[in-house]
Automatic annotation (TrEMBL), chain A:
<dbReference type="GO" id="GO:0005886">
    <property type="term" value="C:plasma membrane"/>
</dbReference>
<dbReference type="GO" id="GO:0005905">
    <property type="term" value="C:clathrin-coated pit"/>
</dbReference>
<dbReference type="GO" id="GO:0030131">
    <property type="term" value="C:clathrin adaptor complex"/>
</dbReference>
<dbReference type="GO" id="GO:0006897">
    <property type="term" value="P:endocytosis"/>
</dbReference>
<feature type="binding site">
    <location>
        <position position="363"/>
    </location>
    <ligand>
        <name>a 1,2-diacyl-sn-glycero-3-phospho-(1D-myo-inositol-3,4,5-trisphosphate)</name>
    </ligand>
</feature>
<feature type="binding site">
    <location>
        <position position="350"/>
    </location>
    <ligand>
        <name>a 1,2-diacyl-sn-glycero-3-phospho-(1D-myo-inositol-3,4,5-trisphosphate)</name>
    </ligand>
</feature>
<dbReference type="InterPro" id="IPR022775">
    <property type="entry name" value="AP_mu_sigma_su"/>
</dbReference>
<dbReference type="InterPro" id="IPR036168">
    <property type="entry name" value="AP2_Mu_C_sf"/>
</dbReference>
<feature type="binding site">
    <location>
        <position position="352"/>
    </location>
    <ligand>
        <name>a 1,2-diacyl-sn-glycero-3-phospho-(1D-myo-inositol-3,4,5-trisphosphate)</name>
    </ligand>
</feature>
TrEMBL record, chain B:
<dbReference type="InterPro" id="IPR003164">
    <property type="entry name" value="Clathrin_a-adaptin_app_sub_C"/>
</dbReference>
<keyword id="KW-0254">Endocytosis</keyword>
<dbReference type="InterPro" id="IPR013041">
    <property type="entry name" value="Clathrin_app_Ig-like_sf"/>
</dbReference>
<keyword id="KW-1003">Cell membrane</keyword>
<dbReference type="Pfam" id="PF02883">
    <property type="entry name" value="Alpha_adaptinC2"/>
</dbReference>
<dbReference type="Pfam" id="PF01602">
    <property type="entry name" value="Adaptin_N"/>
</dbReference>
<dbReference type="GO" id="GO:0006886">
    <property type="term" value="P:intracellular protein transport"/>
</dbReference>
<dbReference type="InterPro" id="IPR011989">
    <property type="entry name" value="ARM-like"/>
</dbReference>
<feature type="binding site">
    <location>
        <begin position="57"/>
        <end position="61"/>
    </location>
    <ligand>
        <name>a 1,2-diacyl-sn-glycero-3-phospho-(1D-myo-inositol-3,4,5-trisphosphate)</name>
    </ligand>
</feature>
Length: 442, 975
């Protein structure tokens, strides 16, 4: 279990230090600073073991969050907790920065007391936390005894994430499918590794205690239902997909605590009572049949020892009606570059010496198009005999569809006590595909 | 020297550095550096030539970036260009870059060396200095190779400026330190010595350092420096002279030079010339006198400089160790420092006194300060000073004050710092033993030691008590009584229980008469501690119990009851279980006579050097204590009673226990030495007993033999009783490896020499006259690589002078499944008997493998067959008729007596098989000449088989008796 939690600024000064267990001494704070933050060699591993004490850290901007333990804990759990901690802090005071942490340190200690008890993570649902950890002073809190007891019963009750008696005039529901696609491709266009990690994020404004059911084109469900005549439903779910593919294979997924896992295990159906406001319904990962939105074709020619010619072609590979945005191609240059000339057909390209790369930016690009850049790089002869390692060309973009092929088939809302039905709820669905680590070797 | 003037400062560099300092994060810093690097690259690449200033600026930036920890792989050329600039600042930056970033890049090194050479030969002193500094800063072998000849020349040249001489001396010192083999000694050495007379302080100081280093290597070449150094020293020290009086540092004349001169003098024994000697004594006296004078300044620098010279003078006095008056004065001076306010001075005083204590002249003088030192031990705040005080007490201890010192150390031990406790324990143990007049005092002291600092009492210490008690009859009773009393304390340290168990087990009978310590009381007392102890102690206690059974038959029932209990007979620890089972059976079956024999009192231990002393030396490492000890032995055996009192006596067991790593090899000896002589009947009876009961009976006699030794030697058996059988076995098998294969190669030249699971060694040999070549094939039978593969051929005397074996070097790795070939060239110098051994060493899966194989190089390999007719043969046969020239052997056939096989073997042996010489056709006759480098030995042989008796008669006649014998031995084994 987590023995303590420290927050440092970029200089390694301690901003927050909360120790939960006696086996973590004061020197642990310094040990992490000396061995990780101020280490001579940059520490890449998120888990560091110093004197039989494990340090798990994440970095947000210039802030280091480190969880410490002497026991053999589940590292995934600790990181999940740290990420959650970041979310909670972001929900309370926005961006995580040194300034904000210093201004809110009382609040942070209060939160840490609530979400970790003797090193065991507790309820970290922002919505629930906000009902009883508020930023107003004691005087500002006009809570009656009933309200307080209501909070207690809700937090300790069965459905800790939603309180009763919520009422909205308009019952609305927003559903975002956010995916990031990761790729490593050989110069010849062979896919070396590719996977999509996606999230389904919901924002619900529903009255009462509604029961929801979420359906998508999960292969197992479709195959099961395939025997029955459900073609109408399948037809309905075609919300602008490009391929005729019916179903996708999900490698693994995790759900928000509100989803009834027993029902998922037995019937593979996702049913839940949603929290109020924004939350992440599920996370998943797929590795098969990924639609790669862009193809990068590199061409690098070394002309003698002092010159290099680079030509890169990018092709968009999706419906022409869709528009990709925020496209950025990053072409690494050798360390002994002394001058660069770039010509590109579309967008803007620039040699950024501070990053040792040519950065080519295109604002928008429709599907099934193609564009290219060519650059001449002058090199300075060096004493080093070793060859340039040719790091891969990386790419960033945003596309309005899900590269995994995931489709939302339905989201039904049932509320038996209040008089609104599934048809009265206004539902919004949006797909966003972003690049993760999208690289092509050259 | 020209300094960097304001106008010459580089603004761009300053801006860049301040930019980097203002970076908020590491990433920002890297970005800024990348940008700057790109800028510099484009500037260097640019078509228009850069002027010296901007070149210097960019090289400076690169240097700064490099010092921040980033790689720089360009700009070397620009830096080298800067070297040839005529501006001081540009040249300086160029040299700075080179000395920081130089690598052994061949084309650049040549340019750099060229530039340095130019500067060295220029007449400009600043340029020469820069070049010399660069050589010294880089200090690599390449630099040494290129300039080792030039630097001494500059150093002794008449027209060299003083500052350059100084740099040259330091540069030479550095080269001499890094690659001493490359610095040539020559006529310049004599002239360097005369630099001691130079007028320039810097030159003298630098030269003194250089001479000191050189003199340590070859003292004879620099002997003349002694008189010069003394003269110089006396000129500095005696105020009458005006030499270098300008160089006073807080009223002390040239302190650094004085210290260095005194150091130089410490390289040599006291000067033999009386005049010089007198002058030196005078100097040292003056220095000691000056220490008495009131300080000329209150500043700390003044006293520091003065004391530095003083301490160096005292070390010289101690080093010479010849002037009693000086030694005593030094000692008194140090005595004053013992109470000085300054902690550092107290520390240094204690340290110097430690060395003084070992001198016969000053030992008594040191002893007068004992109270001060003891006081220091008690009141000193700084632990390192206390540590020195302990060292000094140890050094000044002799018979007269041993009791006081040991008592003080014991009382200090209670409050001592944890880090030095173990050392103090060892020291107390050694002193107590060394100066014990009364051994009851010794026993008391050690028991006290265990009581006070049981955790820090190492095994050796309590082994030692037991050895001494066993070897000295007079203390045994007292020891038993004291131990018994000590054990009555409610909480005893485990070491005390061990000592108690052992001593009561041996000598409990001596105090059994007293009803307060009757056998049963003794046993109950020991057994009350049993459950709190660790396994080795329990094992020892079990041995003590079985000894009790022997000593006091009346408690036999009680003890057997204890042994029979489940906690013993079924103990989870196999050693305890085995002991309980064996002792129980032993006590049930064996008669009292056998018991008395088996469990006899331990014989006295043989006398040897104290293992505690060895341990203390090990702990201290090379340096302080061993030096003192050795010095003391060398100089004055009588002062500290060092040698006349070597009761220091560990035994085989302690040696074995102290070095468990040796056990694997040395196991046979301790085994054979430890058990008391057992009557054979008792031994066999015991083996029967054990084979019936002990679970490990399958381990046969060796395993059974170990437990017999157990009762008699409980100290040692813990370590090897379980190891012995295997290690013996291992030793056997290795021996077999070495022995076996040579025989089959006597008559043939190729085949497999050796094979195990990992490695196969094949052989192919060719011999011509006295020369031979052997191809050895090492086949890796595994799929993994052998690493650090190395072979060596060992020829022991007298073989080394008789046979030259030259293996060619081999690759250090052998890939899985691959074969490695090694060529070994052989030359036979004279006739020989022994076989050369091929040692193979390699790493397989991280484990070092060692294989030793005898190489089948035998004398007969150097045969040249000789054809001759019957008449010649018999003529020669008769010539070789002297009795020592003929060797005959009659032996039984080991193989079937096939004629063809025998023929092949004789031909393979190397001689020509002569048909139709012998009248009896079934006999074999052969002739040949053995070629060695020195001589040729003719050889005739005759083999007469007797098929009915399955016997052979082999007769050999050669012109040398040793050859005849060897060949006969070799050939006899083949049939």
């Amino acid at each position: 279990m987590i023995g303590g939690l420290f927050i440092y600024n970029h200089k390694g000064e301690v901003l927050i230090s909360r120790v939960y267990r006696d086996d973590i001494g004061r020197n642990a704070v310094d040990a992490f600073r000396v061995n990780v933050i101020h280490a001579r060699q940059q520490v890449r591993s998120p888990v560091t073991n110093i004197a039989r004490t494990s340090f798990f850290h994440v970095k947000r901007a210039n802030i280091w969050l480190a969880a410490v333990t002497k026991q053999n804990v589940n590292a995934a759990m600790v990181f999940e907790f740290l990420y959650k901690m970041c979310d909670v802090m972001a929900a309370y005071f926005g961006k995580i920065s040194e300034e904000n942490i210093k201004n809110n340190f009382v609040l942070i200690y209060e939160l840490l007391d609530e979400i970790l008890d003797f090193g065991y993570p507790q309820n970290s649902e922002t919505g629930a936390l906000k009902t009883f950890i508020t930023q107003q002073g004691i005087k500002g809190q006009h809570q009656t005894k009933e309200e307080q007891s209501q909070i207690t019963s809700q937090v300790t009750g069965q459905i800790g994430w939603r309180r009763e008696g919520i009422k909205y005039r308009r019952n609305e529901l927003f559903l975002d499918v956010l995916e990031s696609v990761n790729l490593l491709m050989s110069p010849q266009g062979q896919v070396l590794s590719a996977h999509v990690s996606g999230r389904v994020v919901m924002k619900s404004y529903l009255s009462g205690m509604p029961e929801c059911k979420f359906g998508m084109n999960d292969k197992i469900v479709i195959d099961k239902a395939g025997k029955g005549a459900t073609s109408d439903e399948a037809g309905k779910s075609e919300l602008g997909g490009s391929s005729g593919k019916q179903s996708i294979a999900i490698d693994d997924c995790t759900f928000h605590q509100c989803v009834r896992l027993s029902k998922f295990d037995s019937e593979r159906s996702i049913s839940f009572i949603p929290p109020d406001g924004e939350y992440e319904l599920m996370r998943y990962r797929t590795t098969k049949d990924i639609i790669l939105p862009f193809r990068v074709i590199p061409l690098v020619r070394e002309v003698g020892r002092t010159k290099l010619e680079v030509k890169v072609v990018i092709k968009s590979n999706f419906k022409p009606s869709l528009l990709a945005q925020k496209i950025e191609v990053r072409i690494p240059t050798p360390l002994n570059t002394s001058g660069v000339q770039v010509i590109c057909m579309k967008g803007k390209a620039k040699y950024k010496a501070s990053e040792n790369a040519i950065v080519w930016k295109i604002k928008r690009m429709a599907g099934m198009k193609e564009s290219q850049i060519s650059a001449e790089i002058e090199l300075l002869p060096t004493n080093d005999k070793k060859k340039w390692a040719r790091p891969p060309i990386s790419m960033n973009f945003e596309v309005p569809f899900a590269p995994s092929g995931l489709k939302v088939r339905y989201l039904k809302v049932f509320e038996s006590k209040l008089n609104y039905s599934d048809h009265d709820v206004i539902k919004w669905v949006r797909y966003i595909g972003r690049s993760g680590i999208y690289e092509t070797r050259c | 020297m020209p300094a960097v003037s304001k106008g010459d400062g580089m603004r761009g560099l300053a801006v860049f550095i301040s930019d980097i300092r203002n970076c908020k994060s590491k990433e920002a810093e890297i970005k800024r550096i990348n940008k700057e690097l790109a800028n510099i690259r484009s500037k260097f690449k640019g078509d228009k030539a850069l002027d010296g200033y901007s070149k210097k600026k960019y090289v400076c930036k690169l240097l700064f970036i490099f010092l921040l920890g980033h790689d720089i792989d360009f700009g070397h050329m620009e830096a080298v260009n800067l070297l040839s600039s005529n501006k001081y600042t540009e040249k300086q930056i160029g040299y700075l870059f080179i000395s920081v970033l130089v690598n052994s890049n061949s084309d650049l090194i040549r340019l750099i060396n060229n530039a340095i050479k130019n500067d060295l030969s220029s007449r400009n002193p600043t340029f020469m200095n820069l070049a010399l500094h660069c050589i010294a800063n880089v200090g690599s072998r390449e630099m040494a190779e290129a300039f080792a000849a030039d630097v001494p020349r500059i150093l002794v040249a008449g027209d060299t400026m003083d500052s350059v001489k100084q740099s040259a001396a330091l540069c030479l010192l550095r080269l001499n330190r890094t690659s001493p083999d490359l610095v040539p000694m020559g006529e310049w050495t004599a002239r360097v010595v005369h630099l001691l007379n130079d007028q320039h302080l810097g030159v003298v100081t630098a030269a003194t350092s250089l001479i000191t280093t050189l003199a340590q290597k070859n003292p004879d070449d620099f002997k003349t420096s002694v008189s010069l150094a003394v003269a110089r020293l006396s000129r500095i020290v005696t105020s009458a002279s005006t030499d270098l009086q300008d160089y006073t540092y807080y009223f002390v004349a040239a302190p650094w030079l004085s210290v260095k001169l005194l150091r130089l003098l410490q390289c040599y024994p006291p000067p033999e010339d009386a005049a010089i000697r007198g002058r030196l004594t005078e100097c040292l006296e003056t220095i000691l006198n000056k220490a008495q004078e009131p300080p000329k300044s209150k500043k700390v620098q003044h006293s520091n400089a003065k004391n530095a010279v003083l301490f160096e003078a005292i070390s010289l006095i101690i080093h010479h160790d010849s002037e009693p008056t000086l030694l005593v004065r030094a000692c008194n001076q140090l005595g004053q420092f013992l109470q000085h306010r300054e902690t550092n001075l107290r520390y240094l005083a204690l340290e110097s006194m430690c060395t003084l204590a070992s001198s016969e002249f000053s030992h008594e003088a040191v002893k007068t300060h004992i109270d001060t030192v003891i006081n220091a031990l008690k009141t000193e705040r700084d632990v390192s000073v206390r540590q020195r005080a302990v060292d000094l007490l140890y050094a000044m201890c002799d018979r007269s004050n041993a009791k006081q010192i040991v008592a003080e150390m014991l009382s200090y031990l209670e409050t001592a710092d944890y880090s030095i406790r173990e050392e103090i324990v060892l020291k107390v143990a050694i002193l107590a033993e060394k100066y014990a007049v009364d051994y009851t005092w010794y026993v008391d002291t050690i028991l006290n030691l265990i009581r006070i600092a049981g955790d820090y009492v190492s095994e050796e210490v309590w082994y030692r008590v037991i050895q001494i008690v066993i070897n000295r009859d007079d203390v045994q009773g007292y020891a038993a009584k004291t131990v018994f009393e000590a054990l009555q304390a409610p909480a005893c340290h485990e070491n005390l229980v061990k000592v108690g168990g052992y001593i009561l087990g041996e000598f409990g009978n001596l105090i059994a008469g007293d009803p307060r310590s009757s056998p049963l009381v003794q046993f109950n007392l020991l057994h009350s501690k049993f459950h709190l102890c660790s396994v080795p102690t329990r094992a020892l206690l079990l041995s003590a119990y079985i000894k009790f059974i022997n000593l006091f038959p009346e408690v036999k029932g009680t003890i057997q009851e204890v042994l029979r209990s489940d906690s013993q007979l079924r103990n989870a620890d196999v050693e305890l279980q085995q002991r309980a089972v064996e002792y129980l059976r032993l006590s049930c079956i064996a008669s009292t006579d056998i018991l008395a024999t088996v469990l006899e009192e331990m014989p006295p231990f043989p006398e040897r050097e104290s293992s505690i002393l060895a341990k203390l030396k090990r702990k201290k490492g090379p340096g302080t204590v061993p030096d003192i000890e050795e010095n003391r032995k060398e100089r004055n055996a009588n002062v500290n009673g060092g040698t006349n009192h070597t009761t220091t006596t560990p035994n085989a067991k302690v040696a074995a226990a102290a070095s468990p790593d040796l056990l694997g090899l040395g196991s046979p000896s301790p085994l054979s030495s430890t058990p008391p002589a057992l009557p054979p009947t008792a031994a066999s009876l015991l083996i029967d007993v054990f084979s019936e009961n002990s679970p490990g009976a399958a381990a046969a006699a060796a395993a059974a033999a170990a437990p017999i030794a157990v009762p008699a030697a409980p100290v040692a058996d813990d370590n090897f009783s379980s190891i012995t059988p295997e290690s013996l076995h291992v030793a056997d098998s290795i021996l077999a490896d070495v022995q076996e294969p040579t025989d089959k190669f006597v008559c043939k030249n190729n085949g497999v020499l050796y094979e195990n699971q990992l490695l196969q060694i094949g052989l192919k040999c060719e011999y011509r006259q006295s020369l031979g070549r052997m191809y050895v094939f090492f086949g890796n039978k595994t799929s993994t690589q052998f690493l650090s593969f190395a072979t060596s051929v060992v020829c022991q005397e007298p073989l080394a002078s008789q046979l030259n074996v030259h293996p060619k070097p081999v690759d250090p790795t052998v890939d899985g499944g691959a074969q490695l070939q090694q060529i070994i060239n052989i030359e036979c110098v004279s006739d020989f008997v022994e076989a050369a051994v091929l040692n193979i060493q390699f790493r397989y899966g991280g484990i070092l493998q060692n294989i030793a194989v005898k190489l089948p190089i035998t004398l007969n390999k150097f045969f040249q067959p000789t054809e001759m007719i019957s008449q010649d043969f018999f003529q020669r046969w008769k010539q070789l008729s002297a009795p020592q020239q003929e060797v005959q052997n009659i032996f039984k056939a080991k193989h079937s007596m096939d004629t063809e096989v025998t023929k092949a073997k004789i031909i393979g042996f190397g001689v020509a098989l002569l048909d139709g010489v012998d009248p009896n056709p079934s006999n074999f006759v052969g002739a040949g000449v053995i070629h060695t480098k020195t001589t040729q030995v003719g050889c005739l042989l005759r083999l007469e088989p007797n098929t009915q008796a399955q016997m052979y008669r082999l007769t050999l006649r050669t012109s040398r008796d040793t050859v005849s014998q060897r060949l006969c031995d070799l050939l006899s084994d083949q049939f």
